[in-house]
Amino acid sequence: MRKRITFIHAADLHLGAPFRGLRALSETWANRLLTAIPEAYDRVVDAALARKVDFVVIAGDIFDSARASYGDYLHFFEGLRRLDKVGIPVYLCTGNHDPFTSWSRDFFAFPPNTLMLPADKPGFAAYRRDGETLALIGGRGYYNQTWPSDEDIAAGVTRAAAEQALADAVPDVAHAPFAVGVLHTGLDLDPVKAPTSPAALLRSGMDYWALGHIHMKYAHPSFDDPRLVFAGCIQGRDIKETGERGCFAVTLEEGASPALEFVPTASVVWQRMDVDVADCANVAEVTDKIMRELFRVNGKAHCEEMCVRITLTGTTPLHAVFARPGVLEDLRKHINDGYPSFFCDALVDATLRPYDKEALRREGLFPAVFLQVADALRADREDEIAYIQEEFLLKNIQLPSAYTRRIDDLAADAEDLVLGLLSRGDE
User: Is the link from the previous residue into 367 a cis peptide, with omega within 30 of 0?
Assistant: First the structure.
């Protein structure tokens, strides 16, 4: 029978993180979000218990601040103790937000199941089950809040180094079927925060690298063969961190690529949402359509509550209504009062007013000249594509092939955009 292990890979818990900018809009939602991060951490622990995993890995930034509160320490350690009661080990490293030097020895003593990997050098551990060593764990954390640019955080974290370091204490260490690396690193995605080479990690002899720091799900070479993996943060903190957030349940099996199962942990999900209101006859219909879209998006987000930034789009006579002072803010408040599980932090008008283009042509003013030029460009499709290609090349950007297939739609959108800009002086 092929040997197999399962574990939870989590990172970037950011316990104690503030939610800036919301308190002025809603005291209730600002307070709600303060509870969302500890709830997300509880769900990480719940996932490990429910799946009866072999162990848990936390790849740095457990706390958001180098001066974490006593309450945040208590909450984190309560989760560790829940895992300790059922014999699930926890391996963790420190990150740039909570480096090794910031952990207050007066606040804690780790329960027996927990090992913090060192920050001044690589550290190693062996996971054993039923008297057999099944996995080697190796990694290194942040010592200070910055990482020296002339040092590689992954240097020395290899399977061979783990076997050598553990040889005296673990007799069968060389026969362990799996090896897992743990780092808080920018990899090649963030050149400032302890970057390291993906190629070097792939040569290290580790079967799976549990990484932290990048706040989005990411796998290299791919999710079909995930060797270097970021689980992302467990709870989005602002509109920059949209979509579901969580951790990974990882399965390593002899002769197979690592298998990942994403486990959603965020009780509050941030979303950006465009709502086309071109078919709405009045503001009441706009409200109804927004609410329908909110329920649709929420149904796919695997969350209890949702913070959303809504952009109204489409060509509509209501464009002039939205431009009136106070209209969008009143609409935003009405949306927020309509259903307590949604909170709209901003409502943005990106609609366009409708134009009688034939009337503009007959006027003979600048819009008429612009429309004539647009018609001439549109008449020669190859010339139109060449023009766009040249603009992309000037910015050293490759023109996506999908753009050439949508050239007519893009031209129409550009035409409406310019007419909208020209009309602003009349509003």
Answer: no
